[in-house]
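#lab-general

N.A. 3:47 PM
ok so I finally got the sequence cleaned up, no stray characters, all 247 residues accounted for. can someone with queue access submit it? mine expired

B.Y. 3:52 PM
send it over

N.A. 3:53 PM
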Amino acid sequence: MKSNNNFYNSASIYYDKMIDFESALQKRKILLSNFIENKIKSVADVGCGTGVDSISLSQLGLNVNSFDPSLEMINAAQTNSEKHNCKIMFYNFAANNIPKSFYNKFDLVVSLGNTLANIPFGMIEKSVVKLFRLLKKDGRVLIQILNYEKILEDKERIVNITKKDIEYFIRFYDFNKKDITFNILKFNTDQTTKKELISTKIFPYTSKELKKVFKEAGFKKIELFGGLDKKPFDAKTSNDLILFAHK
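B.Y. 4:20 PM
back already:
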C-alpha cells in the first residue's frame, strides 16, 4: 500500500496513456466551457495531475495556476503544458498546504479528477476552507468526484479496463469498513507475468457530506450536478458528483 503521494508519483509514468490524454483534453475543454463566464479571468487548479484541466482552462483563455502534492505529476503537467504552448504556473502543494500568498487571487477554483476523494477524513474541512480562501470576493469553486453513494451501494469492484497498444490498465476497488482501496494493475499482453500493481486509500465522500463541509467553510449558493454537462445529480444513477459553489 502506497501513500497517496507515492501512488501518483508511480502512476505519473503511464497516467497520460491510461486516460488517453489528448482525447480527454478535447472533451474537458468543451465541458469546462459550461462554467466559464466572461468575468472569470484567473483560476486555480487544485490537484492538477498531469495537467489536462489546467491546459483546457488555459486554452479557454484563463490565467492558470496549478497545484498538486505529487512532484512527478507536476513535472508531467509542466511538460504537457509546454507541448501545448500554454503558460501555466505549477506548484508542488497539496490543497491544505497552499501558501497564504495565494489567498484572494482567483475568480475560480477547480478541483476535478476525484481529487477531494484522495483527502483523508480528518483533513477535508481544512482543505475546503483553503479553497474558500483562494477565491476573490464572489469567486466560485468547481468540484468533481465520483458518486460514492452509487459506488458503495453497487459494490462494483472494476472501475475501468483500458488497453493501449500492448498494455492493459485495470483500475479496481477493495471495499473496507470506512474507506476504499484504489488499485491500478498494469501489464503487457506479451509478458503477463511481468505486472505492476499499485494501491492507495481513497475516501468516499457523499453529496450530503460534501455539501455540509462547503457550507460550513462559508460557501453560499451550492449546486449539485451529475456531470460537467450540468445534468441533474441522482444519488442512485449518476456516475459523477459535481459541486459548484459561490463564495
